Amino acid sequence: MKAVALGLLVSLFLGGAFGNAKAEVESLVGDSMVLTLEVQVAVSAQAVVAHLAFDDDPSIALPMLDRGGGLFGITTELPAKNYAVVFEAVGSDEDLSLPVLISDLGADFDGTDVPTPATEPPEPEGLSDESRRFGWLALALAAASLAVLAVWVVIGKDEDDDADEEE
User: Fold this and answer.
1) Quick one: DSSP state of residue 125?
2) Is the pLDDT higher at 44 or at 64?
3) CB-based contacts of 114: which residues, under 8 Å, 6+ apart?
4) What's the rounded Cα separation, in Å, for the pair 75 and 38?
């Protein structure tokens, strides 16, 4: 039951076109691990790429294989680290997931002390107060413009009707 709740919780954090995702450490030997990543994609995608990042290391882009039914996955060997991963759906409008640590996706390092990023993946930021004010201002300006346009059309139509009656 706990695993199901964790899967639902993680799927909420991925966002965009992505549903459930999981990471599983198949084996851990020395400084290497064999990692399996899987993600469910809710839209039609030509391909899915997993972007793994760890602090200042160069990021790793892993093309994932289509396993059918909207499930994409890959098994690969990497240095043993608790990577942050972002999934990218190629060929869809909603193409990036939110960043999440592979340990949050279920990767279990069997008590082995693996490096963890110095900083957590960034949380998505909402709009600032200033942006929200500009948004409301733009909405009010658009509403006022539509009201003026409606009045102009109605007055112009009445004048045309009066001119037709005089002829």
Assistant:
1) P
2) 64
3) 28, 33, 80, 81, 82
4) 9
DSSP run (H or E) holding 147: helix 129-166
H or E, element range at 86:
strand 84-90
- The span from the CA of 25 to the CA of 78, in Å, is 10
Is 6 in the same domain as 61?
yes
Average pLDDT over the chain reads 77
| Cβ(88)–Cβ(47) below 8 Å | no
Residue 97 DSSP symbol: P
Token pair, residue 78, equals: 């990497």
Collapsed DSSP state (helix, strand, coil) of residue 30: coil
What is the edge-to-edge ordering of all strands in the sheet holding 32-41?
A: 18-29, 32-41, 71-79, 60-66, 47-53, 84-90, 100-101
Distance between CA atoms of residues 152 and 156, nearest Å:
6
Q: Is residue 99 a part of any domain in this protein?
A: yes
Domain assignment present for 114 = no
